[in-house]
Amino acid sequence: MELAPTLKSQTVQNRVREVGINPNYWYPVAWADRLKPGQVIPVVVWQQAIAVYRDQDGLLHALEDACPHKGVALHKGEVHSTNLVCPYHGWQFNGDGTCVSIPYLPKEQKLPCAEARSYPVQEKYNIIWIFPGQQNLADSIQPPHVPEYDNPDWLAVPIPAHFQAHFSICNENTMDVFHGFLHKNLQGWFDPLLINLRSTEASVLAEYRVSYQGWLTKFLGLSDKGNQVTTRTISITYEYPHYRSSLEGISAIYLMRLPIGLTETKSFSMFFLKVRLPKWLLKRIKPQLSKFIWRFLFKKFLDQDVEMIESEQRTYLANPQRRYVEINPAIIALQRVIVGQYEKFMQQSRNLSNGDNPQVKKSSHVTGAIATE
Q1: Which of 176, 248, 321, 354 is deepest in the core (most CB within 10 A)?
Q2: Bigger pLDDT: 279 or 253?
Q3: Residue 312 is part of a domain; what is its CATH number?
C-alpha cells in the first residue's frame, strides 16, 4: 500500500512501547566467531533465557537455559562432546534437549523423562540466529538476505549496539532520517525530505532525499569534493523484525534486531562500503580498516543515538500516560507493523490448542501480561 509522504500531526500509540514480539522469525543473538567449540553462552530472546553452545564438532545447539531437574542455568555448565552438562548434578543433555546421562545412576537404569526445550539455531553472516517461535515454521522462514556479505568489492564493518530501551524506540530511530540534526557536529546528513512511502502488514519502505557536505562526504564516495553539497536518495526498508538500508549503491547497512525485554534491545549490524583502493591492498587491510571505521566514525554516531533512545525510554517509564505528537508518517506506519505483528501472533496462539502446541503455550505465557494493556 502506497502512503502519502506528507508530514502532518499524528498521535503516537503509546501501546507500541509495551508490545511483545512475533517470535516466528529468526533473531540474532551473538557474533558466531566469538563462540568457540566447547563453549556455552547465555542469551535472551524476548524474555526467553537460552543457553547456546558449540559442541566439540563445531555444531551449534540452543537449549532453554534451565535444567529440567532443578532449574539451574545450563549456561553455567560445560560441554562434553556433543552434550551440555548441568553444573549442579552433572546431568547431560544432547542438542535436542533430551537427558542422555546421569552420572550417579547405573548405566542399565532407565533415565527419567527430563527434557529441556530446544530451539532451531543456525550460523549465517558470522551471526548466530535463533528461531524462538513454532519449530515447524523455522525451515520456511530465513534470516535477511545480505548479498554484499561474500562480495569482495565491499568492505564490511560490523556494528554492535546495546540499548536500555524497548525495541520500538530503537526501530523508530532507524526509520527517522529527520534526526540528522543530532549528528550535525559529525558532518552527518541535512535537509532531509521524505519522497516515497509504502507499507504492508509486515514491512515499511521509506525513501528520503538528503544532503551531505564535508570530509565524510568525500570519504564515503558521495562526492569528489567534500566542500560541495551533494544530494542523494537513501532507501530504508523495515521487513519485520529487521532493517536494510541503501544509499544509491554506494553503501548499504543491514540492521539485525534482538529484542531482549521491555527495556532492553541489542543490534547486530553490518555496514557495507565500496572503498576506492586496489583489491589486493583492500584484501590485506580489511580487518584493520573495518575496525578503524567502526571506532573512529560510526561509534560516534551510535553513541549519540543511544543517548537519545535511552532518554526517550526513561521519560516514557516516568509517565506512560503522557501523549506525544509525531509528524513523520513513516514512523506511524512502522508502529502499525510492530503492533500488528504482535497481535497477529497472539491471534494465532489463541486459534491453536495449547495442549497440542506447548511451544505456543509458553510463548503466550511470556507475552500475555502485555496483551491486556
Answers
A1: 176
A2: 253
A3: 3.90.380.10
